[in-house]
């Protein structure tokens, strides 16, 4: 059985998580990282991102709100992180929404090596070049198999693909895990996906270099189980406003025992 | 009697609301839009706003925090929305506070056709060129009649004017509605006006082109009634911190029946 | 005994607090300022900051997320505030984290006269040029005496130094105060230090020019006592998500009587 003890490592090691992120979720992502015991820093000036990324335990690049200057900073930071062997996580928010986002993400994937990429089904389908119907930053819907989308992203970019949604799929291209936990209130709060990307980053930061797949698996499982605790605390399905603070409380109090007991996990090899 | 059923349309249609907004309220506006069932997207890069605005169901431009680059993006997005017949809402945050804001808003009003403009009394008085004493982004105070201010804005800019405050006035230049609902805690949370602008946008997005007046009326009534439910839930008048999550809960659970029952609405023609 | 009545002055006078701040805490700082009865405005366009700063009751400059354009705006605003005799507060967020931040802060300190500077031990040690081990935006740890760090900052920059943490030290270079109140949940929410800087600004804004030391002392004491009330309301030590709204409630309901009764304050002259 999986041990799910990385959440304790994050609390012990307080990894420094450098976020280049958007104006929508910056505060909430920082709150979430603090809740799990990580040490968030947001910095996006071209003059400092390389130094910051190299000094951090992980870099998380989120394209939620972009401008040309920020894109330059993302590339500088990503390259500096690669040189310093700081792992880098990509969150391609709404990549299918505009040609600009697709271009920026293509350039980032060309110039920077990402340890993991986390997106919803619609975003990951764009990266895998698989037909899908997205809308704005929402997941949208499509016929393609989510496991196949994750596998394609993992193989194409030699990365850990984390496709999150009603169920989460984590793939390294050879094997995959599917986690079916999670509160239906999660997508009702802004930036729950963005925060999961940052949490994956924190788990990767406290893992050995070759264990990013496991780190993402544990991050997704711990996060989804915490969201269920929060929903149960509320005792109601439609209180998205109250869900946010209670979910942060749950993240601050998660335990490996709870994850071990609750997780609904399927682990398989991808078919040849 | 008004039916107040647009709130149900928003839940059914999940309109895509493109916001070009400020760093203060971006997250909270997104949370509020999610709560009512709309689909928020924030994008402000000059490279993508035109495409995004044209593909969205409504564009909401908020000048809360500006820079020259963002102003360029606002103009591009507004023009693209006009061409695509995407309705556009303006929130002229603190327009009276600096010459720069007055200049930017004048240019936006010159170059972009707005379906609706929502501001507090001080902001709308500046647009109507009526004397008023504002301070920063607050409404301030003055002797002018708020109905007259709204009428002037509506006529001058051929738009729906939404003047919100202790009471809300909605005018299309010929007729007006006055709504006297609303919690006194609303102005105690940052961005409650900004969110109302976005909610007006969501209601306009699910309405026929010629029904923006009614959409704004219903948006203001539904929003104000929801704030009263939230205040009653708290059972106390001075808990602004707890008010935010509870208000989001109320927005997620509003019903046309509650609005029909609670609304205090006066509808009249403007005197000649 | 200290009277601690400035919190009432803030409620009466609603000082206009101009913040040039970062994307992480902008919303939360505005909420906190609203809670205490101040009137926040965020503006950072080079085209307007000078006018805004001169018209405000205090300017608070926070370097949490920077870019070159924002740095120019900070300098313009700071100089305009100095000319207009608007007090200016500096929050040197993460100043030790990168060379760029150190350079920006050095330039700001060269070009702008600050009434007060608030930072954690690590940030203030960088300003005082005293050895300290920081990490990202966290306080870090070191052997140096915090009172000595505060004294050095106060003397070197002829300012009121506010070093906040598990205990707060306020120094004017000659005398200092040490406050040992405060909830351990405060550092668990993003931007609690940034908000304290803004609160110091609001207290300075309603004080005589020569009373900034007392204003900062009262701000720190009131803030720390409010955080204790919030923690007691929760009845638990590890609910950072629920702490934020409850702390805002406590800020909205603080009283001089509570501060007088609760404050643990040591006031002394610095040794020669």
UniProtKB/TrEMBL annotation, chains A, B, C:
Its EC number is 2.7.1.50. Pathway: Cofactor biosynthesis; thiamine diphosphate biosynthesis; 4-methyl-5-(2-phosphoethyl)-thiazole from 5-(2-hydroxyethyl)-4-methylthiazole: step 1/1. ATP binds at residues 118, 164. It catalyses: 5-(2-hydroxyethyl)-4-methylthiazole + ATP = 4-methyl-5-(2-phosphooxyethyl)-thiazole + ADP + H(+). Substrate binds at residues 42, 191. GO terms for molecular function: ATP binding; hydroxyethylthiazole kinase activity; magnesium ion binding. GO terms for biological process: thiamine biosynthetic process; thiamine diphosphate biosynthetic process. NCBIfam families: PRK09355.1, thiM. Belongs to the Thz kinase family. This is Hydroxyethylthiazole kinase. It comes from Listeria kieliensis. The gene is thiM.
């Amino acid at each position: 059985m999986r041990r799910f003890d990385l959440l304790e490592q994050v609390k012990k090691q307080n990894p420094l998580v450098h976020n280049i992120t958007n104006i929508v979720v910056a505060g909430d992502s920082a709150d979430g990282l603090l809740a799990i015991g990580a040490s968030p820093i947001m910095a996006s000036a071209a003059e400092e991102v390389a130094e910051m990324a190299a000094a951090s335990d992980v870099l998380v690049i989120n394209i939620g709100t972009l401008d040309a200057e920020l894109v330059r900073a993302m590339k500088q930071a990503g390259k500096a992180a690669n040189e310093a062997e700081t792992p880098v996580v990509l969150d391609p928010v709404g990549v299918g929404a505009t040609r600009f986002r697709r271009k920026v993400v293509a350039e980032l994937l060309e110039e920077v090596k990402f340890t993991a990429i986390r997106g919803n089904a619609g975003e990951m389908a764009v990266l895998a070049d698989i037909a899908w119907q997205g809308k704005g930053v929402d997941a949208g819907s499509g016929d393609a198999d989510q496991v196949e989308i994750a596998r394609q992203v993992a193989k194409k970019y030699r990365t850990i693909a984390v496709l999150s949604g009603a169920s989460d799929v984590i793939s390294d291209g050879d094997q995959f895990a599917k986690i079916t936990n999670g509160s239906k209130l999660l997508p009702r709060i802004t930036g729950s996906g963005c925060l999961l990307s940052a949490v994956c980053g924190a788990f990767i930061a406290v893992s050995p270099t070759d264990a990013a797949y496991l780190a993402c698996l544990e991050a997704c499982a711990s996060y989804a189980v915490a969201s269920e605790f929060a929903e149960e605390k509320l005792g109601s399905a439609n209180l998205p406003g109250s869900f946010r603070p209670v979910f942060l409380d749950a993240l601050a109090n998660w335990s490996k025992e709870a994850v071990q007991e609750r997780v609904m996990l399927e682990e398989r090899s991808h078919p040849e």
